[in-house]
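Lecture notes, unit on protein representations.

Consider one protein chain, 230 amino acids long.
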Amino acid sequence: MIINLNIRGLGGGTKAHYLRKIIAREGAEFVCIQETKTMVCTDVICYALWGDNNVGWIHNEGENGGGGLLSMWKKDVFGYESHVLGKGFIAITGKHLRLSHRCVIVNVYVACALSEKERLWEELTNIKMVSQDFNAIRTRNERKGVSNRDGNSREISGFNKFIDINLLLKLPLVGKKYTWFKANGSAKSRLDRVLVSQEWLQIWPMSKQYVQRREVSDHCALVVKSLDKV
């Protein structure tokens, strides 16, 4: 059970309340947050976001407080082993304790510049499970109401090449087609997605990504479940 959200700034009680609510409601085991926009993260902050102190966490502050990533996990379900921090990502290796399976979960936020996306795709090659705000589309119909800039074809080609080289697979999408919406509704794109390896699907074959209602950000949260919730 993984929750992914570009929160566009972690400060504020409304956003903390939303995170606690969705973590409790879905029974989250791992949470990936993008654009924390904070340089400071503490146990107290993470305990408040999770709703108790049974949580491990790693924070990547980004550059001068911009961007920023926070990965959190339920300590009695996910056994942390190691992590790698890079520009725009946190890669965490650990073991699902109940199933004794090791996995890598990568939390990513990349800026809009194509050069930044290309650098990140190269750096992430061979990391096999990615949960992130890619800020990229795979086809033109994943973007609506946004001008098709000259770089779009190159972006689409490069992003699909990254996915193919690393043998990453998309999870079935349930709910909305788009995950980012302009405030006035005039534009929307599918910028957030979860990609997995074939090995992941062998362990959790029923995995799907569920797009949640947009509430505290211009991005929708994604909830990854390995079984349909009854």
